[in-house]
Amino acid sequence: MPDTSYLDWPFLEQRHKELALSLDRWATANIDEAPHARGLETDHACIGLVRELGGANWLRYAVGGQAFGGSAETIDTRGVCLIRETLARHSGLADFAFAMQGLGSGAITLHGSEEQKRLYLPRVAAGSAIAAFALSEPDAGSDVAAMQCAARREGDAYVLNGEKTWISNGGIADFYVVFARSGEAPGARGITAFVVDAGATGLEIAERIEVIAPHPLARLRFSDCRIPLSQRIGEAGQGFKVAMRTLDIFRTSVAAAALGFARRALDEALRHATTRRMFNRTLADFQLTQAKLADMAAAIDAAALLVYRAAWLRDQGASITREAAMAKMVATESAQQVIDAAVQIFGALGVVSEAPVERLYRDIRALRIYEGATEVQKLIIARELLKNAAATGKP
Ligand SMILES: Cc1cc2nc3c(=O)[nH]c(=O)nc-3n(C[C@H](O)[C@H](O)[C@H](O)COP(=O)(O)OP(=O)(O)OC[C@H]3O[C@@H](n4cnc5c(N)ncnc54)[C@H](O)[C@@H]3O)c2cc1C
């Protein structure tokens, strides 16, 4: 394990330190870092990881409510962040498997009925049911409120029609938390959340999508998909709030995953720079290399401070819109630079397929886009600043 001194920072408690260290030991012994290099196809590898993470009790941190299999009554943001950071250091796919169980069931933890919690959360925590979060559409990505997928009320049922795309776990999920336009009001106030079982009549996987860092991803089509009222999550017209509250937790954890990727890149770079010989010295003996390593280390600490500040604040019950946006923007953007520097330090070895730094180079890219692209995070931060300035009357 790399330098763990950050586990003693005041944002974290002793139990967090123990969690991170024990997960690291478990991951070292159990996680297959390169399933694709060994010819394992993505769906199979991902399902296997969910089952393993569930079997070893790590997924209990992805859900809230001890009666429903959760590790605590509410989701511990710092715990989730440390788990994602640690898993990301070992394997992008393991981090993905953990994160999607949380993101895909977060709306149920936060707003689900007792019956929904009883039906879904224990299976998510055990790894026996795979969760997915279906918000984006072909014409509604950053502009979520432009969504068109429709939910029409018919007696004690809703009928869904439309498409969702870029849905992680699409094709292997057992259920999808789906956000659809139910029409109570225009824009963001006319959206409702539902939980839809994968086998529901009228739900089909329209397309499987291959991406730069392979993981299960699909476009879903709903054609007169009839679901009982009992599958609605929260109140009608409150779906946008449900989605945003879920993303508030998991946006910070995307930053934590980026941090894990960056830490791994620095470890790899240090190992290579201190062993690679050239010009009768090691690569690390050159000041140009030292400058790179210094930039990488400082960027990692800056990102970590923002991640654990946001996570700590949320665990104190604070609103973290600005802090989560800052953490995500800085951690994902700087991780991309740290990883690129690591590839450079490796030379040709850095671009060999399935070399650790080559995998990291692909793993990090999408994090700057999903759960709010960097540009969207900038707008959020600026909006909060301006709102505050207007409220206080100070610049
Ligand atoms: C690997 C992966 C997994 C995903 N998993 C899921 C999932 O599980 N569930 C789900 O619902 N969605 C998922 N998504 C979708 C993701 O949330 C969207 O891709 C994201 O919200 C951006 O939407 P978009 O791709 O339509 O890009 P667009 O909205 O078309 O934006 C394109 C680009 O425009 C820029 N931009 C955006 N807004 C502004 C602005 N106001 N001003 C200037 N520039 C701007 C940004 O650079 C952005 O990347 C996933 C995406 C990827 C890549």
Short description, anyone?
The chain has 395 residues and is α+β, with helices and mostly antiparallel strands. The protein contains ten helices and ten strands.
Describe the structure.
- This protein has helices spanning 14-30, 42-55, 77-90, 92-111, 114-126, 239-275, 287-315, 321-346, 356-363, 374-392, and strands at 131-134, 150-154, 157-168, 175-181, 191-197, 203-208, 217-228, 232-233, 277-278, 281-282.
- Helix 6 runs antiparallel to helix 9.
- The protein is globular, with a radius of gyration of 21 Å.
- Helices cover 50% and strands 15% of the residues.
- The longest helix is centred in the middle third of the chain and has 37 residues, at 239-275.
- With 395 residues, it is an alpha+beta fold.
- Flavin-adenine dinucleotide binds at residues 133-136, 141-142, 166-168, 211, 217, 366, 369-371, 373, 375-376, 379.
**Strand line-up of the largest beta sheet:** 1-4-5-8
N to C succession of SSEs: HHHHHEEEEEEEEHEEHHHH
Number of helices: 10
Question: Distance N terminus to C terminus?
Answer: 45 Å
Helix content: 40-55%
- Integer average pLDDT: 96
**List of distinct ligands in this structure:** flavin-adenine dinucleotide
Strand percentage: 5-15%
User: Low-confidence parts, pLDDT < 50 over ≥5 residues?
Assistant: none
Give the CA-based shape.
globular
